[in-house]
Amino acid sequence: MIKVVFIDDHEMVRIGVSSYLSAQPDIEVIGEADNGRTGAEMALELKPDIILMDLVMKEMDGIESTRQIIEKWPEAKIIIVTSFLDDEKVYPALEAGATSYMLKTSKASEIANAIRTTYHGQPVLEPEVTGKMMAKMRQKPVILPHAELTGREMEVLLLIAQGKTNQEIADELFIALKTVKTHVSNILSKLEVQDRTQAVIYAFKHGLVK
Length: 210
Prior knowledge:
Blueprint: E1 2-7, H1 11-22, E2 27-33, H2 36-46, E3 50-53, H3 62-72, E4 78-82, H4 87-96, E5 100-103, H5 108-119, H6 127-138, H7 151-161, H8 166-173, H9 177-191, H10 196-205
Parallel strand pairs: 1-2, 1-3, 3-4, 4-5
Helix pairs in contact: 1-5, 2-3, 3-4, 7-9, 7-10, 8-9
């Protein structure tokens, strides 16, 4: 039997889904809770095979409840069952440690199958959730030009922003004037700017100096 704890503050949802699950030959609902705090305590005490978790609940939401369960019991398998598909719910829930993500619009039979699939080690995600995750993975991180500067080049840029000449920079950093000129050339190239003035403008614009 796959032992399940159901955490949801909607009594009718719990009654309907639990009744269906309890009628299954391989699933047993061993506990129910109507808030995240009590649910987390129950899950950690009963150690069910699967935890069905709502997200928006009183006292403690499902994301925090999931986080606390996983922190104390990393092996827990948690299926989010919610009405929400917005990014501020989906990603935090998965990052907190949820294994699967279902919608309450799913049929009870689909939730039962998700329980079986998750129990056997395979996550189940609503198609919309999968689409969101794929889109996020395809997003290339934006790398700003100044991220390419070395530590020394950043020092030189900050001194340029202070209005110092190449010679003054060389004296302050105890390096050769020729080396400073090389750093300045590299800075202009990496920042894709034409001159020192544009480099200073870039530095202020991106909060490198204030």
